Amino acid sequence: MSMTSPMATDVKTRAELALNDEFLRKAVRFTTERLRNGKRSASEELPHWEAWRDRAREIRLHTIAHLDYYLNLFVENARANGVHIHFADNSAEAVDISLKIAARKQAKSAVKSKSMVTEELHLNEAFAQAGIEAVETDLGEYIIQLAGEGPSHIVIPAIHKNRYQIAELLSKEAGEPLAPDTTVLAGFVRKKLREKFLEADIGITGCNFAIAETGSMVLFENEGNARMVSTVPKTQITFMGMERIIPSWEDLEVMATLLPRSATGQKLTMYMSGITGPRREQDMDGPDEMHIIIVDNGRSLQLGDPEFQELLNCIRCGACLNACPVYRHIGGHAYGGTYSGPIGAVLTPALNGNVEEWNDIASASSLCGACYEACPVKIPLHDMLVFLRRRKVEQGRGDKLEAAGMKGFAAIMANSKRFSAAIRAAQVGQKVVVRNGEITTKLGPLKGWNSYRTLPAIAKRTFRQRWEAGEIAAQSAVKEMDPGIRERMEGIMQQRKKRGGDSS
Amino acid sequence: MKVSIFITCVSDVMYPQVGEAIVRILNQYGVEVDFPKTQTCCGQPSYNSGYWEETRTAARTLLRSFDDSDFVVSPSGSCTYMIHHYSELFKEEPEWLEKAQRLEQKTYEFTQFLVQVLGVTDVGANFPCKVTYHPSCHGSRLLGIKDEPLELLRNVKGLQFVPLPFAEDCCGFGGTFAIKMSDISGAMVAEKADHVIESEAEVLVGLDLACLMNIAGHLRYRNEPVKVMHLAELLYEGMNLR
Q1: pLDDT > 90? residue A342
Q2: Are B90 and B28 in contact (CB under 8 A)?
Q3: What is the pLDDT of residues A357-378, one digit of tens each?
Q4: What is d(CA B49, CA A464) in angstroms, rounded to the nearest whole number?
């Protein structure tokens, strides 16, 4: 199947699991806080952070607006460098192309560096079914592969696990108990993966950026494993989301300034590799054969959609996850898709083109805008979440009770007399439940609110009622206005007029 | 000059004293405040839930109510920001679009109005308490209200300001989110309350009554004695005008 199907459970159920998992919540809080603080210091140290963001956004907007041009340019240049380019419309095609390459090479095993797009394609499962071992070599990815899970964070896939849980997993793999000590655990993985690197027939990578002007691909990483994956095996297969393009190396400077800082607070990742084609004769290492599979898988659905096209600007830094107060409490798996957090809540239904089935994730947001504020390319995710909700309603797939409620809301709000009457009725009606000025019953619709709070009663006399009784406005209370203040106010009104916004 | 108060539903119905505080403070600066009686709600509950046609109905009520006002002042950053969505809602209706753009330009959240329009940063209040401040998301992130409330608080005599840890984190209100996703919202407000308690403040102030209702409701639920007030209430009390 080419599309991820919605899970059997809803986001509420999945969130409840997470909320009751103290280990998970502690681990997620700990790491997101570290990343968030890292990003804050890094962005404060770099002068003109906002100008960098604006520049990055412009580059991404420009590239996506001319994606066909830059993709062609990239493909032409990459081919000239000796790279085999493939296009895949959906995940099934992408998987199929890579399996065919593997079969031609009679591959028995592959090593992989971290790649969200291959997670999206469920590549590991497909390789396993074809009898080819595909081993994740990023530490976090390796851990979740052993656990049989998907990533719960775009940058830190095993963010939900603490070192005791990790030690348990790795001990099983080692066949002996390993101490829950990061040096011991990383040492074990390092040794284990060294064997895998040396015997792998294929190296599989993702692609952080593809540079159109030279047909190159760029990888950012900290562990050196992507460097190994792209130099040791004889054949390299790179999966690249079709929107990963940037026009030039000059543009990479902007991205390289923002991506590591936004993701982990680093000035630069430990490794940044630019790869232009397979091994040339004079090169010491590198693959003899290099393939790049350019994956659409729902991305082109966003092109030309004014509300969602900016999703393609995302550089997968994960900053929105680290800033998100909802993610902080429920972690990534509760989102139910490959991508989690605010970007996942919007990207998953957008890529799948099935907003209505995924809509409940869009509801799991307080629309606080922390994601937008954190985003290095300024994607208005908080607006997009509302657009998703609206599209579901427009398609008539909203909750029937809610829809009726909203009709009632509009009818009352259309007319202040009706509004006043409704409030008067509520003032009388609430008497059965109000004690000492508040409502604490958990019955009916009050359950959600009052399970965590008390609700203040409607005032005995509302502002409107008091105003109408002449209790608030008193001409005599108005002091004489300071001429300075009058001048300021008149100045503001004049400016407004000049801008053409006010005809009064 | 006609200055009108956009009271917002939550203040009108649950916290009328906040509207009163705003009117009385503004009166001190020679601003006569008018209350257009036809106003109802900004439409945020339906907008955020995706019911935009219903939102337009509410929005038109507000647009009509304030059409001839020169300035509009509201006790909520969130409801003020909602008006910034009106241009998008009425982009196909030129007549309403024009009204929407005008209302957006002339509407201010209370501290914005006090500081940016009137140029007042010291109301001469005295409030000898330990106070912390929760910057509500829409006001601070989307309207850009950052320094105004802090400056007003700094100038209150006797007031000891204590910082709120993780102040910028959402309190978990989010309108219907608090009902629909009550467990997530509950976890968020619990953490916010923990931070308020950690600050050792006696009073928590903010600029959005819905957020304050959420935090105060949770503190009450836990029987925590921290007092929760809108900044206008604190200033008014400190001005000792009653």
Answers
A1: yes
A2: no
A3: 766 889 999 999 999 999 999 9
A4: 27
Q: Which whole number is the average pLDDT over B120-131? A: 98
Nearest to B23 among A326, A411, A473 (CB): A473
Contact check, Cβ <8 Å, A473/B20: no
CA angle A90, A92, A93 (to 5 degrees): 70
Residues of B within 8 A of A484 (CB-CB) are: 119
Mutate to test the interface with A, among B183, B227, B239 (most CBs of A within 10 A): B183
pLDDT band at A473 (very low <50, low <70, confident <90, very high): confident
| A87-139 residue pLDDT tens | 999 999 999 999 999 999 999 999 999 999 999 999 999 999 999 999 999 99
The residues, ordered by sequence, that sit 6+ positions from B179 with a Cβ below 8 Å of its Cβ are: A445, A448, A449
B217: contact with A, CB 8 A cutoff: yes
Global ipTM: 0.97
Best of A463, A465, A467 to substitute, by most chain B Cβ atoms within 10 angstroms, is A463
Interface of A with B in 390-419 (CB under 8 A): 390-394, 398, 402-403, 406-407, 409-416, 419
Give yes or no for B221 touching A (CB within 8 A): yes
Q: So what CATH class is B130-239?
A: alpha beta
What is the residue extent of each domain of chain A? Answer: 66-301, 400-485
Q: Which of A326, A373, A407 sits opposite B184 (nearest CB)?
A: A326
Q: In what order do the strands lie in the sheet with A438-439?
A: A434-435, A438-439, A455-456
Residues of B in contact with A16 (CB under 8 A): 183
Domain ranges of chain B: 3-117, 130-239
Q: Which residues make Cβ contacts (< 8 Å) with residue B1, sequence separation at least 6?
A: A486, A489, A490, A493, B70, B71
Neighbours of B107 (CB within 10 A): 26
Task: List the single best residue of A34, A340, A413 to mutate versus B (max B Cβ within 10 A).
Answer: A413
Angle between helices A22-45 and A249-263 (to 10 degrees): 130
Instruction: Name the pTM for this structure.
Output: 0.95
Superfamily of domain A66-301: NagB/RpiA/CoA transferase-like (3.40.50.10420)
